[in-house]
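Record passed on here:
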Amino acid sequence: MSKKTYQPKSRKRSRRHGFLKRMNTKGGQAIITRRRRQGRKKLTNV
């Protein structure tokens, strides 16, 4: 039998989609700002 395709790793996930990664780019900063303006409890999904 083959393995399931999704083998989650939290470090890899946060490196890819985390807060610091977002803040490193102009577009990412825009995302954070937009989510702050919306009043989101969680800014990044990690």
Q: What stands out?
A: The chain has a mean pLDDT of 96.
